[in-house]
Amino acid sequence: MAGARRVLAALLVVDELVNHGDSDSDEEEQRLARIPFTIQEMSERNLFQKTRLDRRVFNYVLEVITPSLKRNTRRGRYEHLTPTHKLYVALQFYASGGFQWLVGGSSRISQSAISNASSKVTSALVAVSQQFNRFPNAREFTEVKQAFYQLGLTQHRVGFPNILGVIDCTHCRVQAPGNAPEQYFNRHLYHYIYVQLIAGPDLKIYNVFAEFPGSNHDSYIWRNSAVRNAFEEGGTFPEGWLVADSGYPQELWIMTAVANVTSPAEHLYNSVHISTRNPIERTNGVLKSRWRVLDRPLAYEPGKVCQIIAACCVLHNICIQYNLDVDDFEDRPLLNDLQPCHGVIPGNYMDIRRDLIARHFTR
Asked: How far apart are CA 179 and CA 186, in angstroms?
């Protein structure tokens, strides 16, 4: 175990040096600039292994972010990098686990150029995040509710009505920040950033909220989110609920499981609740299986890590849109069920759940 920690520490140190160092000579940069780059002659298999995208999805992402990449290109050291080349190396960075020095050889550009390209692509993807990570419209919400209902109906002969999405927090590891590192230290004994995800039945991410350090609780993240404010103010969402685990409070807009089951109806409710909540677990697994950078400790300041998270969530939804599978999916528990919400829950919120159970889950 100690040996593994030393290896990881060494990798982080090397990554930090590579990301922020600048030892490449102008002569070497010019030599690399003369080497033409294209993906046209790459096989589909090789392109997918390197970038986690097939050619059609790669070209679509390129089309989406090229205007931003060209707009932000300045004359200078990296002007020779085409949008295609920038996207190619950035995708390798996201897919390989974040150690840029492992990417350089296959990308045929210097380490500093990789860092520059990854940063530019990340910013370009974040700039279009509202286009791809959004809640459904009124018509789409009707289909979403039907799809969530079907999840319970298939397994339990009864579905969960009026579900707008599933919500939970996951985490992304970071190297201890220089400022207030104790705020990022969690019960798993490492530093991370909390990421709240709201997803649909098809694993699309409707909303990503990556801002708070890892010492906070799911319920705290929720209380400080713009989505909760929108529910409270009204007018944004149709009638319905988000399904959440015990880390969240029972509210007007959230349905949690029953902690102490006392009836067959409550048992059925909990069983359907588990089936309905399953997409958020799978969303997290697919997201981190495809983009390994989110499953490795990152040697960046928290603000940049949050941007990388947002960029990967954009790419995730594009892959879902194109039905692009993950060939090495790994189930990744969200690791929040051990911290139930202990806040005081108003009685009328509990009455809403009891009424739903009585009306819909009593046989």
From this structure: 16
